[in-house]
Amino acid sequence: MYYNRYIDTMEIAKERIRNWMYWGSGDLQLMYLGLTELPELPEGLKILYCDGNKLVSLPDTLPSTLVTLDCADNQLTALPNTLPAGLTELICNNNQLLSLPDTLPAGLTEIICNNNQLLSLPDTLPVGLKLLNCRKNQLVSLPDTLPVGLKLLNC
Q1: Who's near 19: CB < 8 A, 6+ residues apart?
Q2: pLDDT digits (tens, 9 = 90+) for 121-149
Q3: SS (H, E, C) 84-98
Q4: Over the Cα atoms of the chain, what is R_g?
C-alpha cells in the first residue's frame, strides 16, 4: 500500500510540474505530498515550495533560476553544497540540518533556519542579508562579522 501511495504522490508532483511548464509561470507547489524525493525540476522555475514532505535530501543541482526555496518541515540533514546564485530567500526551518553550505549565494536576503541542529553558521554571510532566524539550534556562537544591513537577527 505504501508503494502505491508513493507512486500516487510522485505522480501528483509530476503532474504539477507538467502544469507549471504548460502555464510557464508562478510558483511550483509540491508541499505536503509525503514525498521522500523530488522529481526532476524544470529550468526557469523561480519559486519552489516543497515544505511539509519527508525529504531527506534535495537534488545536488537545483534550477539556476530559483530565487525562493521553501524546504521547511522535512527531514533534511544537509542542503546542496551549491545553491543557485540568484537565490534570495532560503526557508529551511524544522529539519535536521547540521550545517548550512559554507558559501551562500551573494544575493541572499533572508535565511530562516530555526529548529534544526545547526552547530555553527558559515563564517561569511551574504552582505545583503537582512533577516536571519536561526533560533532553536545548537549554536554556541555567531560569525565574528555580521552583515551591516541585517535588520532582524533571531538566534
Answers
A1: none
A2: 999 999 999 999 999 999 999 999 999 99
A3: CCCCCEEECCCCCCC
A4: 16
Contacts of 84 by beta carbon, 8 Å cutoff, 6+ apart: 62, 63, 64, 65, 66, 67, 69, 105
- Single out the residue of 50, 17, 18 nearest to residue 36, CA to CA: 50
Predicted confidence (pLDDT) per residue in 24-59, tens digit: 778 999 999 999 999 999 999 999 999 999 999 999
- Contact between 100 and 121 under an 8 Å Cβ cutoff? The reply is yes
Q: Which three cell numbers stand for residue 99?
A: 550545517
User: 23 falls in which pLDDT band (50, 70, 90)?
Assistant: confident
Edge-to-edge strand order for the sheet containing 152-154?
28-29, 47-49, 68-70, 89-91, 110-112, 131-133, 152-154
State yes or no: pLDDT of 1 exceeds 60.
no
CA–CA gap between residue 93 and residue 134 (Å, rounded): 8
